[in-house]
User: Which sequence fits this backbone?
């Protein structure tokens, strides 16, 4: 195995194990809801709370990886997430549980811009979006494993034990990064300005980076609403059991795995390095899926539900690697970590606010019709924002 393949596989594994616990939580939300005595909206807010951490820490974390390097930030991110999840497994109230999820989210906010910068450094330009997309497979793969395994562990041993086990996986990933990760031998980036102010200001003053980040916030909200409410919707409206509904969540995450590689290949090969068109396809497709699930009720067949959830996974989760690549290319190598951090900060805010707004409208209207329609409308606005970005390739 070549050093490039070994490092990219290592980073994808780190992304995967870090997401098993947090993205598996929606699959066991009904068990946590019963144990802690929560409302439906509270049970649907877990991912929103988790992503408060990335929304606050991603920009400074991206700046720190530009200054301090990849290895220590990779390890730090995983350690913070593991400790947060381990502590969350001991919570006995909604407030304590979500505060500890926020703490775990700080770790992922450190890991994600760090891992993107690492893959960009190890990737040849012609395959950049594909390899970043492969790295980002770790998120839906972790979510798929979490949705498939956490309910089994939780039903047999309790949801607290399931979270403890996921924290142990993350700790193992941190140890692997200590032992294996190193920067590419030919890495030679321009020196950062003293104090990092030049890098940060160049990112914060970029119109195109802000537009792309804002659009990604809506994409991320769309993705997380589906991940947060799919199991609850399938249980409450379609009438499925917890295990049956969680399998469809796992299938959506599997579709996301395929989509992250597929959209990277489309961007690199079919569209010749253009980044806008794959994102437009993802936005249109996820909007269509949202309108379809709006019409889905207890009469839905298993094959139809499987097709819908898989296709949403491809288009609604698969866009992420292309967006990361575009952010880094717009900023250039010296500011790549900071630019990805800005994008993650805003997209994480979308992750937090999207399910909360969805849950509020759900509670206020007493049904899913208006929340789903509002989500689809927001994506139309995001597609208009993408059209305003001046696409250009930057050397890395």
Assistant:
């Amino acid at each position: 195995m070549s050093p490039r393949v070994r490092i990219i596989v290592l980073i994808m594994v780190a992304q995967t194990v870090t997401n098993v616990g947090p993205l598996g939580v929606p699959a066991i939300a009904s068990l946590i809801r019963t144990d802690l005595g929560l409302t439906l909206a509270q049970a649907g807010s877990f991912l929103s709370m988790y992503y408060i951490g990335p929304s606050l820490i991603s920009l400074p974390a991206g700046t720190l990886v530009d200054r301090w390097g990849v290895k220590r930030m990779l390890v730090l991110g995983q350690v913070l997430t593991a400790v947060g999840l381990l502590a969350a497994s001991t919570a006995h109230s909604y407030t304590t549980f979500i505060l500890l999820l926020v703490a775990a989210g700080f770790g992922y906010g450190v890991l994600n811009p760090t891992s993107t910068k690492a893959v960009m450094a190890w990737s040849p330009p012609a395959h950049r979006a594909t390899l970043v997309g492969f790295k980002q497979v770790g998120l839906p793969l972790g979510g798929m494993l979490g949705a498939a395994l956490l309910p089994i562990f939780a039903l047999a041993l309790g949801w607290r034990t399931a979270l403890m086990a996921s924290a142990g996986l993350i700790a193992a990933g941190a140890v692997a990064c200590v032992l294996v990760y190193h920067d590419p031998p030919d890495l030679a980036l321009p020196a950062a300005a003293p104090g990092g102010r030049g890098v940060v200001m160049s990112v914060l003053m970029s119109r195109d980076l802000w537009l792309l980040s804002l659009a990604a916030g809506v994409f991320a909200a769309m993705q997380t609403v589906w991940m947060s409410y799919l199991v609850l919707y399938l249980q409450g409206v379609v009438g499925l059991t917890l295990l049956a509904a969680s399998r469809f969540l796992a299938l959506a995450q599997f579709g996301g795995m395929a989509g992250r590689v597929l959209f990277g290949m489309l961007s690199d090969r079919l569209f010749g390095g253009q980044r806008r068109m794959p994102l437009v396809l993802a936005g249109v497709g996820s909007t269509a899926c949202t309108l379809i699930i709006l019409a889905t009720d207890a009469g839905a067949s298993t094959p139809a539900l499987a097709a819908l959830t898989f296709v949403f996974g491809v288009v609604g989760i698969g866009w992420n690697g292309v967006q990361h690549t575009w952010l880094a290319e717009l900023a250039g190598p010296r500011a790549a970590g900071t630019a990805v951090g800005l994008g993650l900060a805003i997209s994480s805010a979308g992750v937090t606010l999207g399910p909360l707004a969805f849950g509020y409208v759900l509670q206020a209207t007493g049904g899913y019709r208006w929340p789903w329609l509002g989500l689809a409308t927001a994506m139309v606005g995001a597609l208009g924002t993408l059209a305003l970005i001046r696409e250009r390739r930057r050397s890395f």
